[in-house]
Amino acid sequence: AELDTLDILVLGVILLGSIAYFTKGSLWGKQKDPYAAANNANGMAARPARTRNFVEKMDESGKNCIIFFGSQTGTAEDYASRLAKEGKSRFGLETMIADLEEYDFDAMDTLPSDKIAIFVLATYGEGEPTDNAVEFFEYIKEDGVSFSQGDEDAPLSNLNYVAFGLGNNTYEHYNTMVREVDRLLTKLGAHRIGAAGEGDDGAGTMEEDFLAWKDPMWTALAAHMGLEEREAVYEPIFAISDREGLTAESPEVYVGEPNKMHLQNTAKGPFNAHNPYIAPIAESYELFKVKDRNCIHLEFDISGSTLSYTTGDHIAIWPTNAGEEVDRFLRVTGLTDKRGQVVSVKALEPTAKVPFPTPTTFDAIVRYHLEICAPVSRQFVSTLAAFAPNEAVQAEMNRLGNDKDYFHEKTGSQLFNIARLLEHVSNGETWDKIPFSAFIEGLNKLQPRYYSISSSSHVQPKKISVTAVVESSVVMGRKDPFRGVATNYLLALKQKQNGDANPSPFGMTYELHGPRNRYDGIHVPVHVRHSNFKLPSDPAKPIIMIGPGTGVAPFRGFVQERAQQAREGANVGRTMLFFGCRKSTEDFMYEEEFAEYKKALGDKFELVTAFSRETSKKVYVQHRLKERAAEVNELLSQKAFFYVCGDAANMAREVNTVLAQIIAEGRGVSEAKAEEIVKNMRAANQYQEDVW
Ligand code: FAD
User: Fold this and answer.
1) Which of 31, 151, 243, 277 is most buried, by the most CB atoms less than 10 A from its CB?
2) Cα(62)–Cα(311) distance, integer angstroms
């Protein structure tokens, strides 16, 4: 199962393109940090003149511990700042956290041995580095080849490091980043202190894995560096000061704008993870609605921007927190009356960065910039215990923070966010002693959510479709169900666009008009993230797509594209789509559209359906795939591309297993051999996954 030359060429170009995209061209030394200037102009906390030499930076700022993070969704960054905080408060380490993309690594061999580098590295997708770690990874990989372990010239023999990885065991390449970086650093002569930790999101134990890893690590590090533990006292990293004389109407005050250009209404490209495009929604509708399950389709108009996409890319949507959750947060923290107060936030130490532009208001920080609805970390509970409104509450917070089992017993099924937890533990009493800095440090930045683009760039280059299922789940003993942040926001936008003057999906309301009414007329901040999930360049090549539920999203784009190519007279190869949902009458999305594509593609297109709740025995896409074993095997030997999209936890893994079985049986090879064939297909990009 190999690719022909043309495909390899095209994939190569895509790969190069992606590297160029991810590294923003910096491998070629054109521009080291394209955001440096933009950020300063953006009104982010004033940054000192920047060096990309981290050893110099540590010297200048008197640091002896640097904590690098490779983060995609903010968790690794959060862990990095927690380690920084803990290292300082418990051991008196002079810590700084560092975004991997903001430094060069050629100075790595000059870090003196009495200092320490900590790497907190998430693995993304198929064993890949996160976007901000691409360049670092390339660098140590390239250097790594010329040195072997134990080599006296090992260039990093001065380097002492600590490593923790964030991964997901449901993916083929579990925690590849930390494993690889650890291996390469050792090979380059560096010394690891303590064990390299691994957190598993797949098992849902990330936070506990992190907590279990860090204590022995601190012990080892303290022994190595001769540090003495001291009573940890909370010290704020940010100073928050009232700006009397300014109001939310003052032109220099940020009320939710992501950066200075947006504040001044002069936003322009490049649009990216630091600078969103405020995109109009051209159209939105419900694909299905069954009881409390909604699935929506939205079309983002990018014609007014420099944004572009190709079929298979992702769009990132920047959500806004629900008004009810913002109110709850401000109420619990005693900030309701001060919500409109204009404040400046300044980092109290030179290496810390304020994660949003200021001056701004508490309301804007909580609504637009902090992930206030996410799961609560047990460590954060410990930190907040010191600020409890009374002793009984403090004792309870300490117990929750220190006793893993108790914490999970009390909070596990509740889907508490921070405000709900505080409210619950204090029985409604206000927590007005918590320094606001603790929230900026302890909560993540509000993250954009990614969606697999469900349209074809060939058919509609200036309109990006999204297919999203609205997140909600019933919580025992709670009146209101849990509601996902971004998808309920999108549902509210859909309701507004379709004539609802006061949209409130499930009682949630949103500031849909955005800061200074800039989102009026149904606009949402977005950016595009390019992916390697791509159709073969030659439409004649057969493709097999497995996309149950919203996993069908990119395949709607794929089939839309091939139908159009067929209409244009191209020779389009066999196009098989395995789609699954609960019932043909309930959640079978795009049914009519696929019938239209069928008209253009004729026998070339086949939609194979699996409805899990129509028969006594549940039927899933992998069962249908198995039933079509002979044909699937035949198409693969014709070098068909094989795609899987959707649920990473179960479906994608089972599809992988079934495919190996199909190959083993069809080709009369052992299961082990078949698994190897599947692995090689992945390596050659003949097998592509887009799972979450
Ligand atoms: P969130 O608020 O982020 O919650 C998501 C989940 O996190 C919850 O269901 C819950 O399990 C957990 N959680 C959140 N808060 C808590 C809490 N306080 N306590 C306990 N658990 C909690 N989705 C689609 O519908 N369509 C797509 O095409 C699509 N494509 C994607 C492509 C990629 C590459 C990726 C990474 C993801 C994709 N997703 C897609 C998923 C999407 O990005 C979002 O994760 C999803 O829509 C939920 O977002 P939300 O903000 O509504 O939910």
Assistant:
1) 277
2) 48
Whether 481 maps to a domain, the answer reads yes
Same domain (yes/no): 345, 312: no
Instruction: State whether 594 and 548 are in the same domain.
Output: yes
Q: Alpha helices of 315-358 — where are they, by DSSP H?
A: 323-332
Residue 692 is a catalytic residue: yes
312: domain CATH number is: 2.40.30.10
| 65 a catalytic residue | no
574 and 512, same domain (yes or no):
no
Please tell me whether residues 280 and 389 are part of one structural domain: no
pLDDT at position 38 over 50: no
490 ligand 1 Cβ < 6 A = no
pLDDT number for residue 126: 79
Q: 572 and 602 share a domain?
A: yes
Q: Which two tokens stand for residue 244?
A: 């009397």
- The predicted pLDDT at position 10 comes to 56
180 and 328 together in one domain:
no
Does the C-beta of 555 come closer than 6 Å to ligand 1?
no
690 is catalytic: yes
Q: How many domains does the chain have?
A: 4
The chain-wide mean pLDDT, for the chain, equals 92
**Does 577 share its domain with 608?**
yes
Query: Does residue 676 lie within any of the structural domains?
Result: yes
Measured torsion, CA atoms of residues 476, 479, 484, 488, in degrees rounded to the nearest 10 = 150
Give the amino acid at 605: F
The mean pLDDT of 136-165, rounded to a whole number, is 80
- CA-373 nearest atom, ligand 1: 18
Instruction: Provide the CATH number for the domain around residue 201.
Output: 3.40.50.360
Q: For the CA atoms of 342, 346, 352, 357, what is the dihedral angle to 10 degrees? A: 40
- The pLDDT tens digits of the residues spanning 452-499 come to 999 999 999 999 999 999 999 888 888 888 999 999 999 999 999 999
Residues 60 and 146 in one domain: yes
Question: Which of 71, 168, 449 to mutate to test ligand 1, by most ligand atoms within 8 A of the CB atom?
Answer: 449
Q: Answer with the residue of higher pLDDT: 51 or 98.
A: 98
- 3-state SS record for 254-295: ECCCCCHHHHCCCCCCCCECCECEEEEEEEEEEEEEECCEEE
Q: Which atom of ligand 1 is nearest to the CA of 466?
A: 28
Task: Write down the ipTM of this complex.
Answer: 0.99
Tell whether the model's pLDDT for residue 29 goes beyond 60: no
